[in-house]
Write a structure and sequence with these properties.
It contains seven helices and six strands; from the N terminus they run ββαααβαβαβαβα. Helix 4 crosses helix 5.
Length: about 210
Amino acid sequence: MELPIRNMSGEETGQIELEDMVFAAPINRGLMHQALVRQLANARAGTHKTKSRSEVRGGGRKPWRQKGTGRARHGSIRSPIWVGGGRAFGPTPRKYTQKMPKKMRRAALRSALSVKAGSGQIVVLEQLTMEAPKTKAIVQTLADLGLDDGSVLVIMPDRDMAVEKSISNLPQAKTLLSSNLNIQDLLGHDMLLLPQASVEFIHSWLGASS
């Protein structure tokens, strides 16, 4: 698959060959879903906690005698059926971590990249550099590239604080290192903007040599 390479002004400066193994791989939607659920589950803190009737303060004394009052029998005001009582079968701290083999995770990334490539949702850039943070300049660059309508994931080959600070002011755009590529960000953005160096990294990571 070939895509045009553009500069920051939106002008076409060449062509780049995308590896079919990465950007035209068989699309496995079930695998992408499994990878997404795993990532979301692994991000959960699992610190939820409610008190059971044995942990709620008070209630050590029977509220009234068993018989003769005309009221229902009770043994503690901290019973789950009382206001202020404990919680029956409430959540307790636990781990939500899910495991997934590396080959399956990489196959899910190839599927997601193939979906984007097949839908024309990838733009390849010569390079994305800035001398100083300036959001206005980034907005103009995205407009020149036709990326001003919808959300954009900018996949950078290396850290560039000027670019990252400029894009951080845009609610519809996000920067991500190519080494941190993940299924949630791929599926959560409409368009992908990849400098040429990022494409080369993805080829070496997910391609035939991986």
